[in-house]
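Recall that a protein's primary structure is simply its ordered list of amino acids. Everything else, from secondary elements to tertiary packing, is in principle encoded there. The following example makes that idea concrete.
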Amino acid sequence: MRKNIIHLLMVIIGASLGGSFLPAFWLAIQQRDSVFNRPIVNSIIGGVIFLILSLFLANFILKLLTAIDERASKISLTEVLFASIGSVMGLLIGLLGSIPLFYLNVPFVSTVLPFVIMILLAYTGFSIFHRRQEDIRQLLIKNRKVTIEEAPKVMERRADEQFHHYKLLDTSVLIDGRILDILRTGFIEGTILVPNFVLLELQLVADSTDSLKRAKGRRGLDILNILQKEEAIDIEMYDLDYEDIKEVDTKLMKLARHLDAILITNDYNLNKIAEFQNITVLNINELANAVKPVVIPGEEMEVTVVKAGTEREQGVAYLEDGTMIVVEEGQRHMNQPISVVVTTALQTAAGRMIFAKPNKKRLEHQKSTR
C-alpha cells in the first residue's frame, strides 16, 4: 500500500515537472512546434519517467521514511518545542541582522549572504535550545514568581515536612526486583521516577542475545509493569534524555542534580560516584544488610552445613536471608542439622559473615539420647 502511494506521488511530481520544464527542453533542441510539445504530452512524459524511477527508488524511499518515522517517535514533545523556539529565535535574529545587508545593493552580500546568516543562526538556536533545554527549564522554574494563592500552600507543605523528593530508579534496581517489595511496605515516600533512558537500556538488555541478560532484562520490565499497576505506588515516566551523554549512569546523576532527586540503586560504583557529587543515594544492598538479624557471640542457632569451607574441616551453612556461616569442623556434619554457637560476626562490603563452632554439649546430649 505504501509503495503504491509512493508510485502515485512520483507520477504526480513527474507530471508537474514535465509540464513545467519540457517546453524549454523542446525549445532548446529546436522542436518548438513538435507534436510532443503539448501540455498534456509533456505531463505524460514526465509522469512516465518518474514512474520508472519510482520502480527503482521505492524501496529506498520506504526505508528512509521508516527511519524518519522511528526517529520522530523517539523525540519527546518537549524536545520539539524547545528546538522550534530556538530555531524561530535564530531566524528572527538573523533577519534583523541582515536588514542592513539588503540595502547595500552588492550582488552577493545583499542576496545570498543574508540567507546564509539566517540559516546558520537558525541552526545555532536549534542546537542551543535542544542541548540546553533542561538548563533553560530549570532557569525558568527558579525565576518563576510564586503567586499569592500558591505561596501559602508551598510554605505550608514545607513547614509540615510533607515535601518529598523524587526517587530515581536505575536499571540495576529494576532487574534486582527487591524494590517492589520495599515500595509495597511504604517505607519509601514520594514519587518514583523512571527516566526514559533507563527504560531504553532495560529494553536493550531484554533484547540481548545472551540468555542470562535477556532473562534479567525481561524481569526488570515485568517489575516495572507491576509497579505501574500498583495503586498505592506513585510512579511516573520521565521523557527527557541527554543525547550528548552516552553513559546511563552519568545521565542519572545529572538528572538527580537537576531535579534535586534521590537516587535508588544497588550499584556499588554508582553509589560511590554519586556520593562524591553530593547526590543522596539509597542503596538496596545496604538496606538489606541493615535489616538482617543481629547475632552476638555465644548465641546458639540451628544450621545445615551444605558445603566445605576453604580451611581444613571447615563447613559452610547459610541462614534464610543468605548470610553465610562458617562452621569449624563442619565437614564432619555435612548435609545434616547441627547446633552451633556463634564465635564472631563480621560486617564486610559483601555483607555479613558469621563464624561458629559446633555446640559440643548439645551434640553429646544428642548422642546419649540415641
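The mean pLDDT is 79. The first helix runs from residue 2 to 28.
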